[in-house]
Amino acid sequence: MKLTLLQYKTLRPWLWRWHRRAGLAALIVVVLVTVTGLMLNHTSELSLGKTAVSNERLLGYYGIQTPKLSSFAVNDVWFSGDDKSQLYFNEQLIGTCQQSLIAAVAHQGYYWLACQQQVIMLSPQGEVIDSLSAVYGLPVPIVKFGLCEQQLCLATAQRSFVMDAEQFIFTPVDAIQPLVNAEANLPLTIEQAIIRAYRGQGLSWERVLLDLHSGRLFGNAGVWIVDAAALLLLFLSLSGFVLWYQQYSKKKVR
């Protein structure tokens, strides 16, 4: 006898039934993987790697926390530093600082920001003009920074210094303390803009789509579901071939 499994009458209905079921079961995952795969294939054109996620729920799901901000009001401008040592001119990111922002003042038409290990000079538009660190003779770590009458001055844990704002010379002085600009609460609109920018830095849409494509966005269960869908697709391919071959064999016999 030359009968094989392909010729049994019970095989074809069974294959048809499970072929349809497998197709329906894999449908949602296949559509999801197809759409995300197409988008990932055009990452550069869509700028997915450069576009930050701003959705609060998604950022929270990834565990990206709200930053701790230190903010100072100078005239009508707000300066802030976050816990990544990034600096903001109102809501605009302008650079980084060495350790935490501790003060911001206006002097001689410029803004001066002090971090624990650095002093930064800014234009009225918030552009960085110059920066000073210990390499340039800046006394560190700075604990206070502000104005002493008409001069910039700072204090470390050991002593105080008057700063020449033109030549960047630091002269030790006794019995003087900087007039410090105290921290203040940011206006809500600026605070929310900084928080969105901060949280989005750690998460791009490319990362989200990659996790969605692989199922990792839903944890281990998501990965297993995508794996199961891949096996169902394999079954669909094999069962489809078998069904086609049965039909082809019938026509050939005729």
Automatic annotation (TrEMBL):
Signal peptide: none annotated. Keywords: Membrane, Transmembrane, Transmembrane helix. It comes from the Bacteria. InterPro entries: PepSY-ass_TM, PepSY_TM-like_2. Coiled coil: none annotated. The chain crosses the membrane at residues 21-40, 221-245. The keyword Zinc does not apply. The keyword Transmembrane helix applies. This is PepSY-associated TM helix domain-containing protein.
